[in-house]
Amino acid sequence: MSEVKKIAVIAGDGIGPEVVAEAEKVLKATEEVFGYAFKTEHALFGGIAIDERGTPLPEDTLEICRSADAVLLGAVGGPKWDNNSKELRPETGLLGIRKALGLFSNLRPAVVFDCLKDASTLKPEVLEGTDLMVVRELTGGIYFGDKLRRQGEHGEEAVDTCVYNVMEVERIVRQAFEIAGKRRNKLASVDKANVLETSRLWREVVNKIAPEYPEVEVEHVLVDNCAMQLLRRPASFDVIVTENMFGDILSDEAAMLTGSIGMLASASMGDGNYGLYEPVHGSAPDIAGQGIANPIATILSLALMYRLTFGYEDAAAAIEAAVAEVLDAGHRTSDIAVDKSKAISTSEMGDLIVAAIRKA
Ligand SMILES: NC(=O)c1ccc[n+]([C@@H]2O[C@H](COP(=O)([O-])OP(=O)(O)OC[C@H]3O[C@@H](n4cnc5c(N)ncnc54)[C@H](O)[C@@H]3O)[C@@H](O)[C@H]2O)c1
Ligand SMILES: CC(C)[C@H](C(=O)O)[C@@H](O)C(=O)O
Ligand SMILES: [Mg+2]
What we know:
Layout: E1 5-12, H1 16-34, E2 38-42, H2 47-53, H3 59-67, E3 70-75, H4 90-100, E4 105-111, H5 124-127, E5 131-137, E6 147-152, E7 155-160, H6 166-182, E8 186-191, H7 197-209, E9 217-222, H8 223-232, E10 239-242, H9 244-258, E11 265-269, E12 275-279, H10 296-310, H11 313-328, H12 346-359
Parallel strand pairs: 1-2, 1-3, 3-12, 5-10, 8-9, 8-10
Antiparallel strand pairs: 4-5, 4-11, 6-7, 11-12
Helix pairs in contact: 1-10, 1-12, 6-7, 8-9, 10-11, 11-12
This protein binds nicotinamide-adenine-dinucleotide, 3-isopropylmalic acid (IPM) and magnesium ion.
3-isopropylmalic acid binds at residues 77, 91, 94, 248, 280, 282.
Binding site for substrate: 98, 108, 136, 224
Cofactor: Mg(2+); Mn(2+)
Main location: cytoplasm
């Protein structure tokens, strides 16, 4: 039996608790199969924390996360809190936890499973071989710059400020080069350097660091062009590194290459092995409570946790293989089902993945 590791579990809102429950089943199965020992501690966060504690990110939730080795998060947000003031929004809690835990690097792999090519809105031949990683800067840029409302010449105005310093760009770009070096040695740096000063700084930093990684081929792509190229030639991308907001948008776009945003996992990391793992999708209020959400993004996020925080490659690979096996066998939640009448539920998908892990 290995040393007990601690995982903070945050279910959140909407489909968050539904998909996290399935990931916890997988956690339990992998503990038993591989002999790992985890202590999980649940914490309140997001809209439910606003309702129960008057703040989206209670101090004790942050403490539970800080004292853990990793965090598993579902999703937060929903219409109930959409008209709240900024401080009382679930999304403010999400930005707060990322900042407080120093998670500046958000890794969002988008891999097209062969058997799911028919689930995407794109032609199968365009998707062939698509396996990319969006490396999104997560604690800077327009998300965190000063915001204000004021009276201007034409009445009320709103201001969002986008700021990046060299240190913030260097650390994420370095991580992206390192990741590209372990993959196919291709890095696309995405910016809007034809317009934005922050993007010109970003590009200067990439060009300054590039000679340290001569084996990595660097391509600068303007973000509007990148949005288009992702649909035109997705398989040509390996690692995409970009700032916070561009990464948010491009990763949702990349999700559709895989068939559904319900397939896209993510890891939010700092300098070390500590990480927060969550699906790329949100709380999906339109399907919450129906038991039909796809839990695979959250389950694959758990696999990323095993790999990146704990170095348990056997369990990570077993989860990924189990997901592939279940999909190959034709099982689909409704978001990836071509014939929706045959779609299975969230918990059926979780159970099938657990069964595949146990029998492997
Ligand atoms: N990390 C997070 O917690 C996070 C991420 C994105 C959005 N949000 C929040 O979630 C709320 C809803 O946002 P949205 O509707 O723009 O995005 P969303 O990702 O929640 O949903 C977009 C669409 O994708 C579908 N979808 C998402 N996840 C799915 C899954 N696992 N299985 C099947 N279908 C799935 C939804 O049903 C919806 O039609 C908002 O409050 C937003 O702020 C939170
Ligand atoms: C909910 C929102 C604040 C968040 C973001 O924009 O970072 C989400 O869209 C994501 O992709 O994690
Ligand atoms: Mg997003």
